[in-house]
Amino acid sequence: MDDRPTPIDPDQVERRFAALLEKAGLPRFTSSFHDTETDLLEVSWDHGFTIHIDLTRSDMAPIDDMERAAILELPYQCEDHEPIHVTVPGSADDPRSVASIPGVVVHRGPPLHPDDLMVYEGIPVTSPSRTLIDLAEVMTADELRAAFGRAREIGLLDPDALRASRARVEWRPSLAMLDEVIEEFCG
């Protein structure tokens, strides 16, 4: 016996959501798809943004600021934190468009060396050494020193891993400052 709630008619939900968009002064989605296995209605815009609507819930949440920005293809800055930066393999000149994600800044670059990556709670992230190197691009020398100091304080400053990661990094304007800070902390 199936204990799932009975889904609402997807056509009815689609009309309700379209009316919600119109009331908010937002453009209508360009396609929709009803996933019968999950009872989700997926509504998408041409630029790649998709909203998933749970057909087993009778209530429909209002469109929030993050969704509004994504629908309008505008940058969205969360009020309580800076955007999350992610690096993906590839070239910035790649003509394929990737849907933007509100609150996320995507950087493209060559694939990272396996030693510059780790998995934390199931999420692939850069190693502490590679993170310190990448921070040199967005911090002043004093801020970078503070980051190195904190890494040392919590046991994440590994001079050998840091030097190996530094040797692999591509040229960037911050390397002279980075090399100074590495020398200060790692000798």
Please give a quick description of this structure.
The chain has 6 helices and 7 strands.
Topology:
Elements (H helix, E strand, L loop, with lengths): L9 H14 L7 E5 L4 E5 L5 E5 L10 H7 L12 E6 L14 E6 L7 E4 L2 E4 L1 H8 L5 H13 L5 H10 L6 H12 L1
Structure explained in plain terms:
This protein is α+β, with helices and mostly antiparallel strands and 187 residues long. The protein folds into two domains: 10-71, no CATH class; 112-186, no CATH class. Helices cover 34% and strands 19% of the residues. It is built from six helices and seven strands, in the order H-E-E-E-H-E-E-E-E-H-H-H-H. It has helices at 10-23, 65-71, 128-135, 141-153, 159-168, 175-186; strands at 31-35, 40-44, 50-54, 84-89, 104-109, 117-120, 123-126. The strands form three sheets. Strands 1-2-3 form a three-stranded antiparallel β-sheet, covered by helices on one side. The longest helix is centred in the first third of the chain and has 14 residues, at 10-23.
What's the total number of strands?
A: 7
Average pLDDT across residues? Answer: 86
Spans of at least 5 consecutive residues with low confidence: none
- Terminal-residue CA separation: 68 Å
Beta fraction = 15-25%
- Relative helix content: 25-40%
Which structural class is indicated by helix and strand composition? Answer: alpha+beta
Largest sheet, described in full?
Answer: 3 strands, antiparallel
Give the C-alpha Rg: 23 Å
Largest beta sheet: strand ordering: 1-2-3
Task: Please work out how many helical segments DSSP would assign.
Answer: 6
